[in-house]
Amino acid sequence: MQSTDDNIVILGTGGTIAGTAADPHDNVGYRAAQVGVEALVAAVPQLAGLSLQTEQVAQVDSKDMTHEVWQALALRVDHHLHRSDVRGIVITHGTDTLEETAYFLQRVLAPTKPVVFAAAMRPASSLRPDGPQNLLDAVRVASEAGARGVVAVLAGEVHGAAEVRKAHTYRTDAFSSGDEGPLAYVEEGRLRVLRAWPEGEAFGTDGLTRAPSAWPRVEIVTSHAGSDGRWVAALAALGAQGVVVAASGNGSVHQQLEAELLKLQAAGIRVLRSTRCASGPVLTTGSAVLPSAGLLTPVKARVELMLQLMAAG
Ligand code: ASP
Fold first, then answer.
1. Which domain holds residue 292?
2. Angstrom distance (rounded) from CA 101 to CA 97
3. Of the residues 13, 92, 95, 172, which is catalytic?
4. What does the record list as coiled-coil region(s) (predicted)?
5. Mapping DSSP to helix (H, G, I), strand (E, B) and coil, where does residue 48 land?
6. How many domains does one find in the chain?
7. Which of 26, 62, 154, 164 to mutate to test the pocket of ligand 1 (most atoms within 8 A of CB)?
């Protein structure tokens, strides 16, 4: 690998992009996280000759993502971002929890260089894998002058960390930025940028140095027909410091569940209201008894609340 001031570091964490099946026609019965990141890069001839450095940070199916992996990944990304010879970072990741890891890294690091997630809906062994093109596009985005912040690239679309969510179980264009739409498109190696790159305040890595078992516990509960919320009291006993409710519609919560959540809030446990709806914020009125998570989806609201609690000590 060459060494210039334009190095791109590619960090591997697993996922379907690194998955294999016995049968090339099988795009669902595969095992994720089987191929190393170096081999993924070697499988894309157009990446040969570029100044790329690879590092395997983890090798997991992202449905099994842990705070331990997040801790290791955040610290490695932070390390490489501080290198003056690194232009940008690419992270290969599973699609299932990509939006959570992306939001976590954006809020912890708010990087001024691009940190670009590459993923795939089909395994590397597929007759027609989508991973190689997505990886190539991700390296392209990570090399773009002026690019910054945490984004994800799939199916030629670039999505910002705050908006990105997995919106389809199977299709290769599985990701969406909801009302906001993609931040940019990658078209034949060229970038068509539509909106500003992600930026904002960073929580920083100080809080992350503690063992993940000591990170604040934040759980998600869903409001649904018949939710009486009786088991919510158990969350306090489990040591939860925060609870996100995936509410219905514009943040409406079943009255019995709300009564239980208000008891938790009165006991000092932070509660945030997000929505089960696929799009839209939770708009509040002055009389709202549980605070809104705004535009954050339940899983991102969980990350946000965990980081806020971590920062508060
Ligand atoms: N279960 C896989 C993962 O998230 C799915 C994928 O990557 O598409 O690692």
1. 216-312
2. 7
3. 95
4. none
5. coil
6. 2
7. 62
